[in-house]
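Reproducibility note. Readers wishing to regenerate the assembly model reported in the main text can use the exact inputs given here. Chain order matters: entities are listed in the order in which they were concatenated for prediction.
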Amino acid sequence: MEERREGEPQDHPEFTLGAEEAARLREAERAFLDRPLLSIRARIAGGFLLCFLLVAATAAGSLGLLHGARSGLSALAAAAAVESKVHGARSHARDFFREGKGIEEARRDAEAALDLYHEKAPAFLAAAGPSELALLGSRLRRLAQGLAEASALERFGAWEPKARMDLETALERDGAEALEVLERIVGRQSARTERVLVLTQALPFASLAFLLGIIYWVVRVLGRTISLSLDRFRGYTRRIAAGDFSPITPAKPYRDEFSDLAMAVNRMLFELRAREAQVTRAGKLAALGTFTAGIAHELNNPLNNISITVEALLDECRDVGDARKVKLLEDVYREAQRADAIVRGLLDFTRDEPPRLEPLRLAEAVEGAADLLRNEMALSGVVFTNLLPQDLPEVEGDLDALRQLFFNLFLNAVQAMPGGGRLRVDGGTFPTGKVWVEVTDEGTGIPPEALPHLFDPFFTTKERGKGTGLGLAICHGIVRRHGGEIHVDSVVGRGTTVRLVFPARGARKEGAP
Amino acid sequence: MTEGERRVLVLDDEPIVVERLTEALKREGFEVEGFTEGAAALRALRERPFHVVVTDLKMRPPTGMDLVREVRRSFPETRLLVITGYADRETWESLRKAGVAEIVAKPFRLREVVERVKAL
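Running the prediction on these inputs yields the following structure tokens for the assembly.
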């Protein structure tokens, strides 16, 4: 999103739309930019980063657990080896005390058990406390020492029966105690290893559950954010289509990609309105041109008639009688009146004062308007038919305003029939006494989407330069000031009917707008 | 052809233009028939030829342009003078091409038209 800076050439629409609109746009933009940035992209990236971290943690955890299981198993194996050597030493020792042989084997086994213990003691440390380990060590050492002593005594044949019995008892007790400690260690180590294996089994499920949570968050929270934003934008398009061009203001406490979109839409609205203002201005200028040409054309004939009649009068005045002079002067006067009427009609066109209501025949206004457009109709091949009934009740109205009303309607009809056609005016009364008048043409018709905007000022379906978009707006104002109604029905390609309803005479409330 | 013999047809939907031109041309010795409707002018043209036709262009059909075409088609001898209040370049050129001898823009002066008719 490009930043707007003061004084850049792109600011030019301000010249056509005014500082107030520009200030509103800037205010909305600042409101967006002031909010902390929390983009959807960053949130999606965050979601995926969480997923990645979870997978990495799961892998690391699995590795740790596997390592624990493996060292547990090797500790168990070591304990089993020590145990088997202790068993061997005790069994050989018992043979020796009973049958007098096997003392060397017993001594070797006891030393092997002690060596294994020294080698594997760190592996046991996790399952056995230091004091237990020390106890195991001392018993194994005593077993080895006792058997070494027995071996030496046997070799020198220096056995005393009492000492031999004591030694046998001590060796039996030490061996039993060592086995007891080993059994406890093995039992605890098995339980530990079992727990590690259970954890190893559970880890993938826990990790899956977390993953599911993250996916839920991404889909639910982000999805909601996106769909709510889209809903809001649907609302904005409806509002803009309905003609509300005010800038979009922030709806969220933070800023994301939709905020950028909103700012872009605001900018577009601003540019569109600026362009619209330019087009309207260009259209007004073009209309002014048409208007000027129309005035020149309308006034040309009476002024030329006056001019040539005066020329004739000047030429002839010395030679002709009074009757001839009077005739020529009457012509001059009549043509001057005609020019006056045209100018008056033009003034009516721009007048916007409260109607001076007086009883009048609508046919008078209709004929007056049609007369002003006689040339235009003839040139376009439009046939005008007035079917207003002779006995149509009078209405209370302002003749000038009503003439302008019908002028505008007829002009639209004529311009809608460039190839000619029929323009019909019909009328009648409702049982309530209201008077209706219909103006029907066989023109190009109005597309349905334009119908709701027909009475909006500056709305026009005519090509650029052909209409100011004020005609029907003025009509609407005139009808409203008369307490009446105006409806437009149209079928593209078939034609348009404008229906006017006027209150019955005397029915209009005093002071109604 | 002497001036007393010259017949002029005047067509314009403005009655005062027809009257003033008719009077002024008659004062100069022309034999003049004036019309405000194209149909009547066409009828008169077919009854008896004119030496000069003075016509406006825009009016209810048949228009002055129709009269110009009819004259060009059936009466090559007849000279044409067109009076028009709406003379863009295109109209002007197509009139010249159609063999119109004189074109006078409205507003005009009586004397101007009479002099040009006399010169034709």
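We highlight two features of this model. The radius of gyration of chain B is 13 Å. Chain B touches chain A through 19 residues (CB under 8 Å).
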